Amino acid sequence: MPAGRALSGVLLMPQLFDPRPSYPRRWLTLLLTLLLAAPIFAADPESPRPVSFVNDVVPVLTKAGCNAGACHAKAGMGQNGFQLSLLGFEPQEDFEHLVKESRGRRVFAASPEQSLLLLKASGRLPHGGGVRLEQGSEGYVLLRSWISQGATFDQATAPRPVSLTVQPARQTIPVKGEQQLKVTARYADGRMRDVTALALYEANDRAMAETTESGRVKISDIPGNVAVMVRYQALAAVCNVAIPLGAPVAQLPPARNFIDQLVFANLKLLGIPPSPVCDDATFLRRVSLDLAGRLPTVAEAEAFLASKIPTKRDQLVDALLTTPDYADFFANKWTALLKNKRDAASDITANFAFHSWVRDSLLANKPYDRLVRELLAATGTIEGNPPVAWYKRVKQPTEQLEDVAQLFLGVRMQCAQCHHHPFERWSQHDYYSMSAFFSQIGRKPTATAGEDVIFHKRGVAQTENKKTKLPVKPAGLGDPTLDIPPDEDPRLRLADWMGNKANPFFAKALVNRYWKHFFKRGLIEPEDDIRDTNPPSNPELLDALAKHFVESGFDLKAVVRVITQSATYQLSATPNQHNGVDRQNFSHFYPRRMQAEVLLDSIDQLTGAKTDFADLPAGTRAIALPDNSYNRGSAFLKVFGRPEGASVCECERASSASLAQSLHLMNAADVKAKLATSGGRAERLAKADKPEAAKLRELYLAAFAREPQSHEQAVAEEYLARPREDAEGKPLPPAQARRLAYEDLLWALINTKEFLYNH
C-alpha cells in the first residue's frame, strides 16, 4: 500500500499497515479500532452542514450551563477534574479539555452516543449537575453531530461573530404581558444567523420580568423600565422594556429644575401619577438627615415651620451645605469607601490625617476631579501629604485599578483579571492596561511601621498580562494605548483621562452614587455597576445630571443642591392609590432606615445623652468617627451595620432591618442608659414648670420636626397622668414617676418607624 494511503476515510501510516504475521499483534488491534472508527467521518444525516466547535459547540455548552462559574468553569480544577473556561471565552482550552484529556473518553469517536459528554449531560450516567441536555434536543443533536464529524477544532477558520442584535430592541409591554425575542448574530464573513435558541437571557430586575430559555419575556405586575440582557459568545445586546401602569396622570407638581422635567416626563409615559410634595416638617427632617446626618434641632424646626419665605427650602439647603455637619457626614461616607480602616494601633495617625484631608476637601468644596487627582497621584509621606494613606491600604496594582474603576468609574473589573468580563466588553487586556497606570509606584520604608514614602519610579509604564505573558502598556477603558515617557508618572495620565469632560464613566458614576444617597436606589442599580447591559431606569436623567456636574466644574455641592431642591426629592413618601407599586421611577419618596452612625447621634440628640469615643474629644458625633476601629467598642454601631471599610462597595453597609436591631432598641443597656441620662431630656422635661402640651410639643419637634397631632397628645397626656408604683406596689414619688413616664415616652418614640426611618 502506498505511504499515507486513505482507507475508508482514515489516513493510515505505512508502518501501521503491515500484514506480516511477525508484526506485533497490538498494531493489528489498533488497525481494527481505526477501521471501526471510520464511519464517524461520514456526514451525519441530521446535520448536513459542518458543525463548528467555536460557533456551535461552545454556545451549546454555555446555554446548558456547563461552563458556568458554579459548574465546570469553577476556579481551580473545574468540577470533578473536568475544567472549562468561563462562558467559553477560551475555546482552545475547552477543546483540549474535552477531546484530549481523560484518555479521550469524553468524546468517543467510534460511537458518539457513548461519549461521556453526552451520557452525562443527558443524565444517562450519574451527573452531579443533573440533566443539562435532553436526549434528542437540538443542543444534544448538535454535539452528537460535531463528534460524528470528527470532533475538530476550527478557531482558525470559523468566522468570528462581530455583532449581536435583538428584536425588538425597545418595546412597551403591559403588566402581565409577554414578548418573544429574536436574536441575530452577524459574523465576520457577512453571514447572518438566528441564534435565539443558543443565546442566554437575563432581566436586570427579576421582580419585574422573567425570561425563558427560548427568549420569551414575561412581565410581572410592577411598572417601570426593565432591561433584558441577551448574550451569545462574547457579545451582548439589550432589549429595553417599558412597563406602563396606565393610570391617568392629571396633576403634576410644578417642575423646579431639569430633574423634575425628566422624572415627570417618564411618569407620564408610564402612567404613574406622583405623590404630592411633602409638608415643611417632613422636608426639614429629610434634608437635615440627608445633608448633615442629624435631626434638626427644636429651634431650627420652630423657625423653619414659622417662616413664610417662599424660598425657605432652597435657603435651608444652602445653609446646610455650609455647615461642618455636611463635611463630617460625607467624609464618613467617602473614608469608608476609601478603606480608611485601622488594623494596628500605629495606624491611628495615618487614619486621622486621611479623614481630616477628606473632610477638609469636602468642607472647602474642592472640585471632585481635583480631589481624585490628589488621591491617585499622591506622593511623599502621610504626614506631609495625607492622601498617600490610601496607598497604605491598597498596595497592589491590581487592587488599585479594581478599586479605582469601581469607586470612581462605576465599572467592576474584577472578573476581567482572569477572563473576559461575562456581562461587559472588558477583556484581560483592558484589565492589565488599567493596571499599568500603577506599575511605576515606588515605595521606601519610613520610621513608622507599615508606612512608606510613595514616589514615582522612573521607567516604562507597563505590566505583564498573566495569561499571555506579554507586556501591556497603559490605556483608559475603551481608549488607545499610551506611550508615556519614563520620567512621567502614569498616574497623572490616568487622572487626566478620568477628569476629561468626555470621559463616559467618571461623572456618571458620581451622580449615580449621589442619587442613590438621596433616593435609596440609583438610576443604575447597583450604583457601581455601570455597563451597556445594565442601563439606567431613566437614561436621559442620568445624562443630564452628568452634564450638569461636568459643566459645574465637578462641583459636589452643586450636585447635592440640584437634587435636594428638586420637586422630585421633595415628594411625599405616602403613595397614592396608583404608585405604591413603583420601585424605580421616583413617583414618591422611598423611606429608608437611618444609617448606624446617624441613628446613634439622633438618639443622643433626642435623649440629651452623649456617646464617648476613645481618643476623640467629648461630644464627637458618630458620623465624625475617622475609621472603623470604633465599631469594636460599640455594640450599637455593629448591630446597625456600620461598615468596616474593607470594600469599595456601599453594600458593605447594612441597611436592612433585623430582629437584633429591634431587640437592641427595646432592651439594650446602652439605650436604657441614654433614656435615663442625668440632665437629659426626660429629666429636664419632668422638672420643667410648663404645661404638658408645651413639653410634648418640644418632644415631637425634637423627634419628628413636627408638632403632635391631637390624638397623639391626648394619649401621651393620659399616660403621663397615670400613677406609678414600685416593684413592691408602693406609689412612687411624683417627681420620680413623672421622670419615668417621660423616659417611657422617649423609648416609645425611638421605637417608631417614623423615628427610625428617613421619610
Structure described in brief:
This protein has 759 residues and is of the alpha+beta class.
Structural account:
The chain is of the alpha+beta class. A hairpin with a 4-residue loop joins strand 9 (209-211) and strand 10. Helix 14 packs across helix 15 (428-435), helix 24 crosses helix 27 and helix 26 (710-721) runs antiparallel to helix 27. The chain is globular and about 100 Å long. The model is unreliable at 1-24 and 26-47 (pLDDT under 50).
Number of helices: 28
Low-confidence runs? 1-24, 26-47
Helix content: 25-40%
Rg calculated over all Cα atoms:
33 Å
- The CA-CA distance between the termini, in Å, is 90 Å
Quickly give the structural class. alpha+beta
- Extended strand count: 18
Sketch the major β-sheet.
4 strands, mixed
Anisotropy-based shape: globular
Topology readout:
Blueprint: E1 6-7, E2 10-11, H1 25-37, H2 53-63, H3 91-100, H4 116-121, H5 138-148, E3 161-167, E4 170-172, E5 178-180, E6 182-187, E7 192-194, E8 200-203, E9 209-211, E10 216-219, E11 224-232, E12 235-243, H6 258-270, H7 280-292, H8 298-306, H9 312-321, H10 324-337, H11 348-363, H12 368-376, H13 389-393, H14 397-408, H15 428-435, E13 441-445, E14 452-456, E15 463-464, E16 471-472, H16 490-499, H17 506-519, H18 539-551, H19 556-564, E17 592-593, H20 596-607, H21 635-639, H22 659-667, H23 669-675, H24 681-687, H25 692-704, H26 710-721, H27 734-750, H28 753-756, E18 757-758
Helix pairs in contact: 2-5, 6-18, 7-9, 10-11, 12-16, 14-15, 17-18, 17-19, 24-27, 26-27
